[in-house]
Write a structure and sequence with these properties.
Layout lengths: L37 H23 L5 H8 L2 H32 L4 H16 L2 H9 L1 H4 L2 E4 L10 E4 H4 L2 H27 L2 H9 L4 H31 L11 H12 L2 H30 L11 H16 L36
Antiparallel strand pairs: 1-2
Helix pairs in contact: 2-12, 3-4, 3-8, 3-11, 4-8, 5-8, 8-10, 9-10, 10-12, 11-12
Length: about 350
């Protein structure tokens, strides 16, 4: 037998509640008024107006010279400059983070000598500007005309000897300056990630007799990567843009190639926009890679991985499509089809309750 709940009373005829009385209040008679965020709407409207105004100026202002921009966007000097920029970034990042890992382990070492040497390296290379380091490496031949191996504490290189100008070329000077500079910052990022791991992880792994190298690379470092990856990606993105300083030693990277072109044709703005768009594309790709790397290392801390942008888009599209295909309201006199009964715990398909003994 089923019972039907009484229809709610009309709000206009609902009795008013006397202040101070102990009578119960029917919450169904209270009108729910959503909060109106006026300042948020005003600020959103202003921001939308500013963005629309800027977009309108991009289209209508002829001084941007979009024809010149399109002409040089895929030009050969620009593409060669992008190749140099990416090469400098990749090699310097490998050198910087490899050396930075060793420096971070040295800072955390129980040896006072290793800890002091690592701290001194980080202190020095963080103190000297990057441009100064690159210029010093490029002019190393003024200090040491030759480099080689031979008798210690002498210049008698009887084993092997190289002219410094040929050994340290412009590209090598850029790699040394960017890589050694990056190592100082990478060391602190990696050290911070290792320190963020609970010390109990170290103690538990050591109590199980796991070797130190395996403890580091299989237990500690994967947990520290959640703290390392965001800061490391920032450093790599900064390295992409920081590679533009090597124009001081005439390496034809992206910014140097753009400078050479606009010094010839005086089209400064469209050529700078070419560099801006290419740097933005590279940074966007690195940001997408950061998202998926962080998602990969979040497996041990999150019960369910966050959905990717593609999964969110598919969910939104399927939801909107389902709204379009909603079934019409049931006709009068026909009851809607009831939902399937919900199964209780222990009654899932393929699960059986254990039989009890007779007489138990």
């Amino acid at each position: 037998m089923t019972t039907t709940a009484p229809a709610p009373a009309d709000r206009s005829t609902a009795p008013a509640t006397v202040p101070g009385s102990t009578a119960k209040v029917d919450l169904g008679t209270i009108a729910v008024v959503p909060t109106r965020h006026w300042w948020r709407w005003i600020l959103s409207a202003l921001l939308l107006f500013v963005v629309a105004q800027f977009a309108w100026s991009l289209v209508t202002n002829d001084r941007y010279m979009w024809g010149t921009f399109a002409q040089y966007f895929f030009s050969e000097p620009v593409l060669i400059g992008i190749g140099y920029t990416l090469s400098l970034t990749v090699i310097s990042a490998v050198v910087g983070f490899s050396l930075g890992t060793l420096l971070a382990l040295g800072r955390l070492s129980a040896s006072p000598l290793l800890a002091s040497v690592a701290w001194g390296y980080i202190w020095f290379f963080r103190s000297v500007p990057l441009v100064v380091q690159i210029i010093v490496w490029y002019n190393l031949g003024y200090l040491y005309p030759t480099l080689g191996l031979g008798t210690p504490f002498t210049t008698d290189f009887w084993i092997v000897e190289f002219p410094t100008v040929q050994l340290v070329s412009a590209f090598a000077a850029a790699i040394l300056g960017l890589g050694l500079h990056q190592a100082a910052y990478s060391a602190e990022i990696i050290r911070g990630g290792l320190v963020s791991v609970d010390p109990g992880q170290h103690e538990a792994a050591a109590a199980l007799g796991i070797p130190a190298s395996r403890r580091l690379f299989r237990i500690i470092l994967p947990q520290a990567m959640r703290s390392i990856v965001p800061n490391a990606t920032n450093e790599i993105i900064g390295l992409v843009k920081g590679a533009s300083v090597v124009f001081v030693i005439a390496i034809p990277e992206l910014f140097y190639a753009v400078q050479v072109i606009y010094n010839r044709n005086s089209r400064v703005i469209p050529l700078l926009l070419v560099a801006v768009v290419w740097y933005t594309l590279i940074t966007t790709i690195l940001s997408i890679a950061q998202y998926y790397i962080e998602r990969y290392y979040a497996r041990g801390s999150a019960r369910a991985l966050p959905p990717t942008p593609a999964q969110r888009a598919r969910t939104w599209v399927s939801t909107q499509w389902a709204r379009l295909g909603d079934s019409p309201a049931p006709r009068e006199g026909r009851m809607p089809r009831p939902p399937p009964p919900r199964r209780e715990a222990g009654h899932e398909r393929g699960h059986r309750h254990p039989r009890t003994r007779r007489g138990a």
